[in-house]
C-alpha cells in the first residue's frame, strides 16, 4: 500500500483541532512583545528555551555544576565548566600543556586573579584558541593560570555574553543561537 504524505495547512489544523487552537491561544496570550519593536527586529528575534523533557534523570534534585566537552584543534577537552559567575575564561596550564601542538602564542596579561579564599593568583598570560562547541567554532581568549582545578577549562562571562549563550545547570545544557 502506497503512503501519500498528508498536507495540512496551519489554518486547517487550527480550525479542525480544538486542542491545537487552545494551545496556540495560550501561547499567544502569554507572549510579550515590546510595544516599540520594529517589524524587522521582531522577525530577527531568536528564541532559546529549556523544557522539563531536557532535564537529567536526577531532575531538580541535583546540584551538579554545568560541564560540557569541546574540541580544540584535534583534541577533545572534557570537563569544561560553564560558570556565569566568573569574569574570566580560564585555561589551566596543565590543559594548555596537553594542547602542545596548537599554534597559538601566549601573550602577556596584566590580569591578577583573586580566588574564592581571597588569595591572589598571577596569570601566566593570555591565549586565543579556536574552540569547537557543538557545531560552532569560536576564537576564545583565555587567561592561563598555573592551578589544579576540578575542571580542564572554564568558560565564564566573557564567552557567555559574547555569544549570547544561555547556560542551565538545572538542565545540564548550554544553548546559543549559531549565526555562523
UniProtKB/TrEMBL annotation:
This is Uncharacterized protein. It comes from the Eukaryota. Keywords: ANK repeat. The lineage of its organism: Eukaryota, Viridiplantae, Streptophyta, Embryophyta, Tracheophyta. InterPro entries: Ankyrin_rpt, Peptidase_aspartic_dom_sf. The keyword Signal does not apply. ANK repeats lie at residues 61-93.
